[in-house]
Amino acid sequence: MKRIMRSAVLASAGIASIALGTSSPAFAATEGAFNGTAHINCFGCGTSTGTAALKVTGAIGTKKVIQGAVSSSYTVVEAKGTCPAVGSATGSFSGAINGTFTWTRVGATAVLTTAGGIKGDGIAAFAVTQPKGLPCGGPVTATVVGSVAGT
Prior knowledge:
It is a single chain. The protein is mainly beta. The chain has one domain (2-150). It has one helix spanning 2-21; strands spanning 30-43, 46-60, 64-78, 86-95, 99-106, 109-116, 120-130, 138-150. Strand 7 and strand 8 (138-150) form a beta hairpin. The chain is elongated. The N and C termini lie far apart (39 Å). 33% of the residues are buried.
């Protein structure tokens, strides 16, 4: 199982790196990339809460460039029997840009939808830093990277 999780994290990080390194489609008027640290109070415990401290870089429309810190809080729902395979979350973010989001996570990769200061869709990859081994049934801290593109 550890080998599967490591492979999923490495693959997810690679996907996110590609997403961060490519230009967005011609129709994307808003785009942003983020990285930082995410925390879930009880990973794989059903419903739990979490926070994230992120650094963002991006553009809104053709004029406003954003760079700065964003904090986020969210509620996570993960079926106890599937840990760490699937989960979802809803939350909000504020700071250099403000808005709300949802994510659907499979393994270490999440698909995002955002509204507010940036309205779009994106992807994020998580790499658990604490605890060591499978993180089910307790607090989790992870490094996260991702990007969002919108219209």
